Amino acid sequence: MYERDFMEGTRGTMAVDWEERIDVGRLRRERKERALERLQDSEMGSMLLVSDPNIRYVTGLAMTGGSGADHYTLLTEDGDVVHWDTADHASNQRFNCPWLTDVRYACPGLGNVPRASGRASARQFLLDTMVDEIVMAMDEYGVKTEPMGLDVGHQRLLNVFETRGVDVRSEECTQAMEDARKIKTRDEIECLRQAAAICEAGFGRITEEIRPGKRESEVWGTAVKELWRHGAMVQGGYLTSGPNTWPKHQANTTDRLIRPGDLVYADFYNVGYLGYRSCYYRTFSVGQPTQAQCDAYEIARDNLYDVLERIEPGATTDEICEGFPDMEGEHAEWYGASDHWQMTTNHWAHGLGLQLYEVPLIWRGLSPEHPIEIEEGMTMAVETMEPANRQGVRIEEMVVVRENGVEILSQWPIEEITTISY
Question: Which residues form the Peptidase M24 domain (predicted)?
Answer without folding.
Answer: 190-403
